[in-house]
Structures are given as structure tokens and as C-alpha cells.
Write a structure and sequence with these properties.
Layout (H helix, E strand, L loop, with lengths): L1 H4 L3 E6 L16 E5 L1 E2 L13 E2 L2 H7 E8 L5
Antiparallel strand pairs: 1-2, 1-5, 3-4
């Protein structure tokens, strides 16, 4: 979390159902989103496509537990 506070961005692997957040995913991962406020090009325009806040419990349910940090390391 300190890396995010330092200005780095996280790109996470999530199930595409994260765009609605109201289903139980059959598997996790497979879709890359910029998180925790996501930019999801395949999301629904005006609802889940850009600058969408995803609650942590929802993110955990859809996340594959892997991702990448973007930007220069802090320090």
C-alpha cells in the first residue's frame, strides 16, 4: 500500500464481472484493470468504464491475487 501512496499505480488481474460487482465469479482473474479506482475499457459507459471506485471486498472476490505496479519505485 505504501507504493500506492507514493504515487505508483496498480494494474490487477480480475474477473470481468467486477464491472457489476454483484455476481459470484466462476473463476478469478483474466482481465486487467487499473485499480483501486478502475479504468476498465470493456466496462459499461457511464457505469463501470472509467474512474469507478471498487470496494475492497468486491475487488478481493474478483481478483486473481496478481498484478503489476507501474511507475518508479518510491525512494
Amino acid at each position: 500500500m505504501s507504493q500506492l501512496h507514493a504515487g505508483r499505480l496498480a494494474m490487477l488481474s480480475v474477473h470481468p464481472g467486477v464491472r457489476s460487482g454483484d455476481t459470484e465469479p466462476p473463476h478469478r482473474g483474466g482481465h486487467l484493470v487499473l485499480a483501486v479506482t478502475i479504468h476498465n475499457p470493456s466496462g459499461w459507459h457511464g457505469a463501470s468504464q472509467e474512474l469507478v471506485d471498487v470496494p475492497r471486498p468486491v475487488l478481493r472476490r474478483y481478483s486473481a491475487g496478481r498484478g503489476v505496479l507501474l511507475g518508479r519505485p518510491a525512494g
